[in-house]
Design brief:
Blueprint (H helix, E strand, L loop, with lengths): L10 H21 L9 H9 L10 H13 L10 E2 L8 H13 L11 H17 L6 E5 L2 H15 L8 E6 L5 H8 L7 E4 L9 H13 L3 E8 L11 H11 L2 E6 L23 E5 H4 L7 E5 L19 H4 L18 H10 L1 H24 L4 E3 L7 E6 L7 H18 L3 E7 L2 E7 L7 H26 L1
Parallel strand pairs: 1-11, 3-4, 3-5, 5-6, 6-7
Antiparallel strand pairs: 2-8, 7-8, 9-10, 10-12, 11-12
Helix pairs in contact: 1-3, 4-12, 5-12, 6-7, 8-9, 12-13, 14-15
This protein binds pyridoxal-5'-phosphate.
InterPro entries: Aromatic_deC, PyrdxlP-dep_de-COase, PyrdxlP-dep_Trfase, PyrdxlP-dep_Trfase_major, PyrdxlP-dep_Trfase_small
Cofactor: pyridoxal 5'-phosphate
Protein name: Pyridoxal-dependent decarboxylase
Length: 480
């Protein structure tokens, strides 16, 4: 069994084994004609159930054959141009190469003595990101597992910096279309159940700053303490960007921590054409970026950045065995001092490889392409009487719903749209997402693949209309 340990004597086994796996994935990429096969849970579960984990196959090729059957054949492929559902990007090859290297070397980024250069590479990428944001000389940050963790850590710092340690009185302000991780964080941080104050958005799905000002005022009048305002730069559903300069103004007026959740909108940090859309982000106290959303990076790759490096001390604990206090004096860079995690992947390497091979403009151009594609999709939808489209895109998301001319019952239209999404998924021809707007069911394209064309969108809209019409036809039959 020692032949399976990666070391000096097994380098050749490693090369062969990993190459075999890469060959399978490469073959898959070359032949995948749909984003999904439409496999059902009921069809797949028994195949996985029947595998006896206590009876190993002892042979890599056999295991890869089995993997084809239980995973590769029916996986949901984000690289396919008709995968239009969630915030999953196709990944760039330099990042995948980075992933292969980082897992083989297996550095752990908690301490210098488990990573060496890895720590410095991560720090340089943090500095690169804070410079792109414009957070200033004292900025810092750390890679995280994702936007959820970044938001949690940012709000932890905000809680610790707040003017009271009576957690029950703290309030967090976020728009009604902010990410649910804000509420989850509030719960984890021991805030009260009604700690997150939901601020309404306008038709453009951006936070209404007049309402925010009103709520901040009321908070103080009620003897409560505003802890943080979470501005979303790229809402998950609409890609809308809250008015950052106005929010920054209010935050400084009320002395409130400004957090910008740019999990999605961070792609604009590399944009060649649209960087201006997140102007004001530089005034944040903390920022969430998800490179795995809009930098074409494999999951996980994310970071939390702060304007004032000193605030990261709120996540610092010293353990004698790992990062004793004296190491701070010795200036040994231990990233665990800044992180909620201990053992931590060297995810930064993927971004490093990407920037070194493609450059920031290379990534930014890809992101600009999907933003442009969204505008074309919007025009397509706006001109199509079969569809109602919600808001002109700022990033790369389109929310719309099929509205048959002959049907007036909104609940029936809801059902037709829900059915269309399900039927499309079951066909595997395309994958789209869904959400609710004003209590009604809508469908969503999240465009993150520069390979998607207007033609793809047009075909998928026809498929959706076809499924919805079929549902309505059958529904008529049922009624008569
Ligand atoms: C996706 C998303 C998150 C959560 O990020 P994960 O990486 O999925 O944990 C947070 N905020 C926004 C706006 C998002 O779109």
């Amino acid at each position: 069994m020692r032949s399976h340990l990666l070391n000096d004597t097994t380098a050749e086994h490693y090369r062969r084994s990993v190459t075999e796996g890469i060959e399978r994935v490469a073959a898959k990429l070359a032949t995948t004609s749909r984003p999904f096969t439409g496999v059902t849970v009921d069809a797949l579960a028994p195949r996985i159930d029947e595998i006896d984990l206590d009876k190993p196959l002892l042979d890599t090729a056999a295991v890869l054959d089995e993997l084809e059957d239980v995973y590769l054949r029916d996986a949901v492929y984000f690289h396919h141009p008709r995968y239009l559902a969630h915030l999953n990007c196709p990944v760039v090859i330099p990042a995948v190469l980075g992933e292969a290297i980082l897992s083989a070397v297996n550095s752990s980024l908690d301490t210098w003595d488990q990573s060496a250069g890895g720590t410095l590479i991560e720090r340089k990428l943090i500095d690169w990101t804070t410079a792109r944001i414009g957070l200033g000389e004292n900025a810092d940050g750390v890679f995280t597992s994702g936007g959820t963790q970044s938001n949690l850590q940012a709000l932890l710092l905000a809680r610790e910096e707040a003017k009271t340690d009576d957690f029950g009185r703290l309030r967090v302000f976020a728009s009604e279309v902010s990410h649910f991780s804000v509420k989850k964080s509030a719960k984890l941080l021991g805030l009260s159940q009604d700690a997150v104050v939901s601020i309404p958005v306008g038709h453009d799905k951006r936070m209404q700053t007049v309402a925010l000002a009103h709520e901040l005022e009321r908070c103080e009048q009620d003897g409560l303490v505003p802890m943080a305002v979470v501005a979303t730069a790229g809402t998950t559903d609409f890609g809308s960007i809250d008015p950052l300069p106005e929010i920054a103004e209010l935050c400084s007026q009320y002395g409130v921590w400004m957090h910008v959740d740019a999990a999605y909108g961070c792609g604009l940090l590399a944009s060649v054409k649209y960087r201006g859309r997140i102007d004001g982000i530089e005034r944040a106290d903390s920022v969430t970026v998800d490179y795995h959303k809009s930098f074409f990076q494999p999951v996980s790759s994310s970071a939390v950045l702060v304007k004032d490096a000193a605030t990261l001390r709120h996540a610092t604990y010293h353990a004698e065995y790992l990062n004793p206090r004296r190491m701070v004096q010795e200036r040994i860079p231990n990233q665990v001092d800044k992180s909620l995690q201990t053992t931590r992947r060297f995810d930064a390497l993927k971004l490093w490889m990407t920037l070194r091979v493609m450059g920031a403009d290379g990534i930014g151009q890809l992101f600009d392409e999907v933003c442009d594609l969204a505008v074309e999709g919007w025009q397509l939808l706006a001109a199509d009487p079969r569809f109602d489209v919600v808001v002109e895109p700022t990033l790369s998301t389109l929310v719309f719903r099929y509205i048959p001319a002959a049907v007036t019952d909104p609940a029936e239209i809801d059902r037709a749209n829900l059915y269309a999404r399900k039927a499309l998924f079951a066909s595997g021809d395309a994958v789209v997402a869904g959400t609710k707007v004003g209590g009604r069911h809508y469908l969503k394209f999240t465009l993150l693949n520069p390979e998607t064309t207007v033609e793809d969108m047009s075909v998928v809209l026809d498929l959706i209309a076809g499924h919805a019409e079929q549902y309505l036809g059958e529904s008529l039959d049922r009624a008569s």
